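Comment on the following before class.
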Amino acid sequence: MEIELTPEPAPTSQPTPVPAELVPVALSPVPSPPTHPDRSTGLLIFGVVQIILGLMTAMMVPLIALGAFVSRLAPGGAMRPGQYVSASATYLLLAGALVWLGIGSMRTKRWARSLTLVISWYWMILGVLITVLLTGVLPVTMRTALQMQQNTPGASSAALPTGVMAVILTFIIVFCAIFFIGVPIAFVVFYSRADVAATCHDRDPVEPWTDRAPLPVLGASLVFFVGALYLLVTGLSTPVFPFFGRYVTGIAGFACFLILAALDTYLAFAIFRLKAVGWWLAVLTVPIRLFSMALTFAKADMMQAYSKMGMSDAQLQMLQSSPFVRSHVILWWSLVSLVIFLGYLIWLKRYFKTPSVPSPVESLSALAG
């Protein structure tokens, strides 16, 4: 009996399986730790402060409504509806902007840092001017108000002691200095830090629209845009437009405000896009505005313009008794602000490069090539 031997299987070409623990695993790259301190906590704190400031600003709207109601009982007459609407709209827009920026700062958004930094700079500069203005005019205003109260028939003849008046004035000026100068300085110092910018860049890597222009240019664009909104609201509420030596009121005054608001809107977008024509137009039109305002303040009678708008004699008398109106201090303060802004625009020329015209030789060389 023959025994058949089973042939051995031929070796296969399949590789020997490697144990799973020996197979190399592709590791995801470990992100390198940031080389700067993380300032997200500071951004959160400053964002909360902005939201609180926004809520406090919104609380001014019911106070304005209360003032409008109380003004009906005052000798000067009731507040005009346009004044109430314009003041309420201004505070609501400001409150909304502060809350919006606060939320953006809490979320470490780059656009929130840029806008907060720009607004804080303007807040600080205007705060210095406002504090100086109040320091010079507020004592005269309070003294005039006390004299009017004493001259009112049936009013108490007891005068406010000089020491008490000094304490009140000091408190008001110190509060204004803290709110208009101290608070924006804190915002400027914090949001100007390089580690704050780096923290926002790490947590918000997508380029926002605010980074399409340098921060100084963004600031000028923002001024023109806010100025356009202000002109529109002023034209709706108080259409008294200074125009080369006289005040234009009514529909014509509103039309002037509307045209100027349209111009500022165009300048805001043109400057933001770094268009040289926008810069030139701004530099040429701002001095014209300065000349028109100065000529009107020096020659025209503002009380006559207000009387054409339907103000009563009592309201005109109250306005005339105010040192702010009688001395045109607010109007001249506006002129000083425009002069400072004009100097700022001239300084911005470095960011607006006029495209060079190629010479004939360069054009021929390009065609030959």
In short: The chain has three domains: 38-107, 116-149+164-211, 213-350. The first strand starts at residue 240 and ends at 243. The chain is about 70% helix and 0% strand.
